[in-house]
Amino acid sequence: MDFEQVFADVARTIEGAGVVIMAIGLAVVLVRYCYDVLRKGTGSYQQLRVNLGRVILLGLEILIVGDIIRTIIVESSVESVLVLGLIVVIRTVLSFALEVEISGSWPWQTRRDDAA
After folding, report:
1. Contact of 22 with 84, CB cutoff 8 Å
2. Keywords assigned by UniProt (predicted)?
3. How many angstroms separate the CA atoms of 23 and 28, rounded?
4. Which residues contact 107 (CB under 8 A, 6 or more apart)?
5. Which residues does the chain have with pLDDT short of 70?
6. For the chain, what is the total number of helices (H) and then of strands (E)?
7. Which stretch of DSSP H or E encloses residue 97?
C-alpha cells in the first residue's frame, strides 16, 4: 500500500464519518423532537430546525476536510483543485445560509451583539 492509497483511504474514512454524523444526528434530532411532542404535547419546530441545521453544518465541515485531503494528496491536478474550490465555495455558502437560518443573523452580527 503506497502513500497515496493510505491518504485516499483516510479521505474516504473522513467523508464517511461526515455522512454518518449527519445520519445519526438526524435520527437523534428527530427522536428528541418526537419525545418532546409526546411528553409536552407540542414540540418546538424552530428548535428542530436549529438542531438539524447544526448537524448539517458539522457534517459539511467534515466533508470539506475529506475533500481537501483527497485533492491535495491524492488527486493533485488543476482540474481537481478547481473542483475542490467550487465545492468549498458551495459548502461555504450553504454554511452561511444555515448559520443565518439557525441564529437569525449573520455570524459577525451575532458576535457584535454578544459583546454589547
Report:
1. no
2. Membrane, Transmembrane, Transmembrane helix
3. 9
4. 96, 99
5. 107, 110-116
6. 4, 0
7. helix 78-103
**Sign of the Cα pseudo-torsion (87, 96, 94, 9, in order):** positive
Beta-carbon contacts of residue 66 (< 8 Å; ≥ 6 apart): 11, 12, 14, 15, 18
CA 11 vs CA 22, 50, 58, 69, 93: distances in Å: 17, 28, 16, 6, 22
Q: Which three cell numbers stand for residue 67?
A: 475533500
The 10s digit of each residue's pLDDT in 31-52 is 999 988 888 877 788 888 888 9
Q: Decide: 25 and 55 in contact? Cβ < 8 Å.
A: yes
> Position of cell 491535495?
72
The residue extents of the domains of the chain are 3-115
C-alpha 94/C-alpha 10 separation (Å) is: 25
